[in-house]
Design a protein that fits this description.
CATH topology of the largest domain: Rossmann fold
CATH superfamily of the largest domain: Glycogen Phosphorylase B
Helix content: 25-40%
Order of helices and strands: EHEEHEEHHEHEEHEHEHEHEEHHH
Number of domains: 2
Number of strands: 13
Largest sheet: 7 strands, parallel
Structural class: alpha/beta
Strand order of the largest sheet: 3-2-1-4-5-6-7
Shape: globular
CATH architecture of the largest domain: 3-Layer(aba) Sandwich
Distance between the termini: 18 Å
Strand content: 15-25%
Number of helices: 12
Length: 384
C-alpha cells in the first residue's frame, strides 16, 4: 500500500509532527507498504531518523519571513497557495498513492479536490478538538472569528474527505455525532521508554509550550498553595515559548524561585518524567494530551484540569489520577497535596496509569490505522 502524509515540516519539534513521523516509520516497517511525507517548508534535518520513509519537499516555505505590506503579503500568500496546489498534485501523480492523509495546515482545505490519477482515499486527521478555537476565544472578535472559521472548515471544506479521524470518543459522540464518516483512532505513545518512576522523588513535572492555552500561570498559582504545606517539593515546567519571561516574573513575585523551575526543552522528555513522582496539567483545552499519556507510561499518576476535549478519556479519575473542575485552583492544590502525602496511593495510581497506557502502544494504534486504510481502499475500489 502506498501511503502519503501531507505535513508542514519534518524538522520542527511539535506534537503533531512527532506523531506523524513515528506513525510513518511504523507503517513503513509493514511489508508491502511504501510511505512518503510531503512537506511545504524546506527540509534540513528531520527531528528523528526516518526508516524507509521518503520525504518530498515542495519548497513552498509559507513561514519564511518577508518584509512587505499587508496587500503584498496577501498576494504572496495567494501565489504560494497556487504553487502548492500545482506541486502537490504533480507529486501525488508521480507517487500514485492509495491513501493520502492531511496532517498539516496548508493543504487541508484543498487536498481532496486535487486531480490524482490513482483515485486515492483522502483522510483528514484532526489533532485538536472541534471546539478548540471557541474554547480559546476571549474577546467578541475572537469568538466571531472562531465561529466563521469553524463553519468554513468543519461544515464546508472537510466534507470532501473520504474519512475524518478524531482522537477520542468524546469528539465522535459530541461534536461529530451526526457525521457518518468519522472514525476514532487515538494517538500512540511516541517516546516509549523502559525507565519507570519509583514515585518516591519530591518532584512534580509538567510539559508543553509556554503559551496561553497551557495555562501555566494558573499552575504556578496552584504551586504557591502547595508549598505552604510541602516546601521541600519542587515543580518542573518543561517547554519553551513566548510566555517564558512572564512566567519567570510570576515565579519571582510569588517567592517560588527555589520551588518552581522552567527547564526548557529536552530530547528525552519521558526520561525526565521517570525522575518525577507526579504529573500535572492545567490546560484550557486538550484534544488528547499525548504528554499526559507519556507521563502515565513511566508509571506516575496525574492531576489535570477536566478541560474541554478528551483528556477525561486519558486520565481515569480516582484510578490513574484526578480530574479537577476547570479553574478550581483550591481543589487542584488539594489533590496534589493528597498524592504528595500518600506514597502508597501515588504508587498504586502510578501502576494503574502504566497499565492503562499500554493500550496506546504504537503497534496497537498502527493496527487500527491499517484496518481503516484497507477498509477505505476496498470501498473506494468497489464504488468505481
Amino acid at each position: 500500500m502506498k501511503i502519503v502524509y501531507c505535513s508542514n515540516t519534518v524538522c520542527k519539534i511539535g506534537g503533531i509532527e512527532m506523531v506523524t513521523l513515528c506513525k510513518a516509520n511504523a507503517l513503513a516497517r509493514i511489508p508491502d507498504n511504501q510511505v512518503w511525507i510531503v512537506v511545504t517548508e524546506d527540509v534540513t534535518t528531520p527531528v528523528m531518523n526516518l526508516d524507509h520513509v521518503t520525504v518530498v519537499n515542495l519548497g513552498i516555505n509559507y513561514t519564511e519571513y518577508r518584509e512587505m505590506g499587508l496587500w503584498s503579503l496577501y498576494q504572496d500568500y495567494r501565489r504560494r497557495k497556487r504553487l502548492h496546489r500545482e506541486r502537490l498534485e504533480k507529486a501525488l501523480n508521480e507517487i500514485n498513492p492509495d491513501v493520502v492523509v492531511a496532517t498539516g495546515q496548508y493543504e487541508k482545505h484543498f487536498l481532496p479536490t486535487l486531480k490524482v490519477r490513482s483515485n486515492p482515499v483522502f483522510v483528514r486527521e484532526l489533532h485538536m478538538a472541534r471546539s478548540f478555537r471557541r474554547d480559546c476565544s476571549v474577546s467578541r472578535y475572537e469568538k466571531l472569528k472562531a465561529k466563521v472559521t469553524g463553519f468554513y472548515e468543519y461544515r464546508w471544506k472537510i466534507r470532501a474527505y473520504d474519512k475524518i479521524v478524531v482522537l477520542t470518543e468524546d469528539e465522535l459522540t459530541g461534536a461529530w455525532k451526526n457525521w457518518d464518516k468519522v472514525a476514532v483512532i487515538p494517538n500512540p505513545i511516541t517516546n516509549k521508554t523502559t525507565e519507570l518512576s519509583s514515585c518516591e522523588s519530591k518532584i512534580v513535572i509538567t510539559a508543553g509550550g509556554l503559551r496561553w492555552m497551557k495555562n501555566f500561570e494558573a499552575l504556578i498559582n496552584i504551586w504557591a498553595k502547595v508549598v505552604q504545606k510541602h516546601a521541600d517539593w519542587t515543580l518542573q515546567i518543561w517547554g519553551e515559548g513566548k510566555q517564558s519571561t512572564m512566567l519567570e516574573s510570576q515565579i519571582k513575585r510569588l517567592g517560588l524561585a527555589q520551588n518552581v523551575f522552567l527547564k526548557g526543552s529536552s530530547s528525552n522528555m519521558v526520561g525526565e518524567m521517570a525522575k518525577a513522582s507526579l504529573f500535572v496539567l492545567t490546560s484550557k483545552s486538550e484534544s488528547f494530551s499525548l504528554v499526559t499519556l507519556e507521563a502515565m507510561s513511566v508509571g506516575i499518576p496525574s492531576v489535570v484540569y477536566n478541560c474541554p476535549g478528551g483528556i477525561r478519556y486519558v486520565v481515569e479519575d480516582g484510578k490513574t489520577g484526578f480530574l479537577v473542575p476547570m479553574g478550581d485552583e483550591e481543589a487542584f492544590a488539594e489533590r496534589v497535596c493528597a498524592l504528595i502525602e500518600d506514597t502508597e496511593m501515588r504508587k498504586e495510581m502510578g501502576a494503574q496509569a502504566l497499565k492503562v497506557s499500554e493500550k496506546y502502544a504504537m503497534d496497537k494504534v498502527i493496527e487500527q490505522w491499517m484496518e481503516l486504510f484497507r477498509d477505505l481502499c476496498q470501498k473506494k475500489k468497489g464504488n468505481k
